[in-house]
Amino acid sequence: MPELPEVETTRAGIAPHLVGQRVVEVKVYQRQLRQPVTPGLATALKGGVINAVERRGKYLLLKSGQGCVIIHLGMSGSLRLVKRDQPLEKHDHVAFLLASGKSLRFRDPRRFGLVLWTRKPPQQHPLITKLGVEPLEANFDGDYLYAAAQKRTVAIKQLIMNGQVVVGVGNIYASEALFRAGVHPARAAKRISRVRYERLVVAIKSVLAEAIKQGGTTLRDFYNGAGEPGYFKQHLKVYGRSGLACVECGAAIRQIVLGQRSTWYCGRCQR
DNA sequence: CAGTCGCCCTGCGTGC
DNA sequence: TGCACGCAGGGCGACT
Questions:
Q1: Is residue A252 part of a domain?
Q2: Which residues of A are marked as active site?
Q3: Which residue of A154, A155, A225, A243 could cross-link A14, Cys pair, CB 3.0 to 4.6 Å?
Q4: Does residue A62 sit in the same domain as residue A116?
């Protein structure tokens, strides 16, 4: 489900309802996620005030004076704000009850997501320390990606989806960015020129920024914190379009598998 | 070290 | 209507 634009949309949607709010209670209905929900979370956070809601890659960070909740939405996770007495939905695993009378619900059918608690600064957490650069920040540029690609034979699509290189680029936006840049997704990373990396970085930044503006991509079940879908789906040019005509040249969009993930591209526009 | 693969889990669409 | 199968927006750890 969520790549960087969807996580950022979620963050922006829930932040105004959380910042300054006291957490009255934390309820954990299912602790078995990708990792178990941190056992001390409910006790540690209860009574604390959320000072900030930040994002690092695809991780959401709810910061309080006592520590930080680290949330990852995995493939199917979502967060939404509801009235506290609203009935639980199936797969609601954690609820953060707020003094305002609202409840932040973490729902995740496939349970690939995470809800963790750390007292240390979150950037010191093992899952966060190893993360690569933020794609929308200035230090992600053509030189950086070109340098990261040297000596690497892996397909370029897998390189830009590698969170230790650059965070937040998932399966949808990787295909879309490569199409915009005219780069074939299976091309070995080290076989791409510096100039083409400049173009690719611009493409990644633009596709992510535009998707954020549209509130993300709703394929099936992504909704922002208020329950509204994202509208970037109608701007997708290759993702999920096997056999359909390329919007640029009319050739049929092809589908292959790279790193066990479906990949779409135009064999004529992308080299 | 880089790269490949299996796997965690549930739900949905398709084809028989 | 039911069932089997493949596939899904992610990422880790074991292995070569």
A1: yes
A2: 2-3, 58, 261
A3: A225
A4: yes
